[in-house]
Amino acid sequence: MPISALKVAVAASLALATSGCGASEPPPHLRITGGDASAGRQLIRSYGCGTCHLIDGIAGARGAVGPPLTNFAHRTILAGRYPNAPRNLVPWLMNPQAMAPFTAMPTLGITAQEARDIATFLYTQGAADVAVPAPIPAAYPWLEHAEAYRAADSRRLTGTVRIDPQRARIPIERAMELLADPPPGN
Predict the structure, then answer these.
(1) 74-113 pLDDT, tens per residue?
(2) Where in the sequence is the domain holding 150, given as residue range(s)?
(3) By three-state DSSP, how is residue 36 classified?
(4) Is 185 part of a structural domain of the chain?
(5) I need a labelling partner for 46 at 20 to 30 A (CA). Which of 36, 88, 163, 172 fits?
(6) What is the rounded CA–CA span in Å between residue 113 and residue 35?
């Protein structure tokens, strides 16, 4: 292999290794519709996130003010109080002060699309070996029928049943209400 071709191959390998473009995709439970990790990487640079945070794959991102954002896909808590999930990370990036008024994280005017891109990039950090949560089994399989049971119980306990034109069967709860109120004139 000629020297120039070798230099190009080494440069390309190094670029992929350090760019984040070769980073794995976010795990399924952390994927964001319309998010672009490579655009997010550029946005992290342009917003200067590395001034406060340590971020792998971003040159010069060695800040120590905020938490390190390495292996972000492994994190379970965001901002010390929210589950680390796209539904929380995207709004956090857009307006952290609204979610945690006394946070040191500034509101930078990040748009919704930019927040999706940045979040997508962050979720590639450590994504190669993150465990995908198993679907939660139905702890109570009867829950899907619970409303029907509740309605039947309600009818049984509160509904009056006409036995014939002269008689009706009333539920015990209604009978107790009638007994508690003495007839007028007594």
Answers:
(1) 898 998 889 999 999 999 999 999 999 999 999 999 999 9
(2) 141-180
(3) coil
(4) no
(5) 88
(6) 7
